[in-house]
From TrEMBL:
Organism of origin: Polymorphospora lycopeni
CDD domains with a match to the protein in the record: PhnB_like
Domain of life: Bacteria
Protein name according to UniProt: VOC family protein
Domain PhnB-like: 7-130
InterPro entries (alphabetical): Glyas_Bleomycin-R_OHBP_Dase, PhnB-like
Length: 137
């Protein structure tokens, strides 16, 4: 799998409804995981969407989630650019360049779902999410 670049939307508690709406609009296959599935300690967040991915037959990929518990949701901070794939060297290279001179909010390291993941804001104020998955097969 090569690297993917796509929008990642944040929602204020209605990610499930929004992503199901986009599935009806664009068609395709929708996959969702909740915070509870990954052992979130806050019971109020257990049913909230931690990650959703819609892959359409037209070749679009749209990702989204409910804004993380404990962080303020403000319209304007609800869009990130996601880089993902299994080419660890390529993605770590992008991470190094994007985070240089910027602000790292989640260091690029192994996460509870098994992938390496990090979030940073580049020096121009754009939020980037990098996810390195394990190569398949």
């Amino acid at each position: 799998m090569g690297s993917l670049l796509n929008p990642y939307l944040s929602f204020d508690g209605d990610a499930r409804q929004a992503m199901e709406f986009y599935e009806r609009v664009f068609g395709g296959t929708l996959m969702m995981n909740t915070y509870g599935e990954f052992g979130a300690p806050d019971p109020a967040a257990a049913d909230k969407v931690m990650h959703a991915r819609l892959d359409t037959s037209g070749g679009f990929t749209l990702m989204g989630a409910d804004h993380p518990p404990g962080e303020d949701y403000r319209p304007g901070n609800n869009l990130s650019v996601s880089l993902s794939g299994d080419d660890a060297d390529e993605l770590r290279g992008y991470w190094a360049k994007l985070s240089e001179g910027g602000n790292v909010s989640v260091p690029l390291e192994k996460q509870m779902w098994g992938d390496e993941f990090g979030t940073c804001q580049d020096r121009f104020g754009v939020t980037w999410m990098v996810n390195i998955s394990q190569p398949q097969g």
